[in-house]
Amino acid sequence: LSFGHLGGYPGVPFQILEVPRSQSISTVYLKVDSKLARIGPLGNPRVAQRSDVVASLVRDDAAGAFVVSVLFLIGLSGVVLYAFHRNVKTYLYLALFSVSAGFYFFARLRSRPLFEIDPVLSGALGLLGLYATPYFFIGFYREIFSQRFVKALEKMQWAAAIFSLIATFGSFFSPTGPLDFLFPFYALAVPV
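and the corresponding C-alpha cells:
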C-alpha cells in the first residue's frame, strides 16, 4: 500500500500521516533518509484520528504553554517598565532574560508545529535563546544582588556575550546550525 511521499521534511517533532480509511488491517512502512545523525521516529507512533492526536498534543503541552506565556508576559512587562524607567537596567535584563527563555521553552513544545511556524527557524531561535539567557541572567543578577564580585560578574557576562555571538554567527556555517554549539554551551554554563 503506497499513499504518498513526503519530501523536504524539515525535522518537525511530529508528522501526521493521513492513512486511507479501510476496514482491513493496513501496514505502514516508513523509509527515512537523512545526512544527519539523529533521524527516525521518536517514541511510539500514535494511531488515531487527526483531531485526537492534536488534542492530545495540546493537552500534553498545557503546562509548557503556560510557562511560555508567563515568560513572554514578564518580558513584555519588563520592556514597558524599562520604557518608563530608562535608568533601571534591571527591567531590561529581566525582560530579555524572560523572552530568551521563552523562545527556548517554546521551541521545546511538541505542539509548536500547530502554530505553523517554520520548525527549523523556531528550533534555531530556541537554541539561540538558550545561549543568550546566561548573558541576560548575569546582568539581572549583577544589577539586583551584587555589590561584591562585580569584576568577576562582568567578565562572566562578557564571556556569555562572546559565546552567544560565536554561536549565532557560527550557526550560519554549521551543517546543523546552533545545535553544534550545545555541548560547548553546557561545558561552559554548568560550571558557572
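(Above: one complete record from the training split.) The first helix runs from residue 50 to 60.
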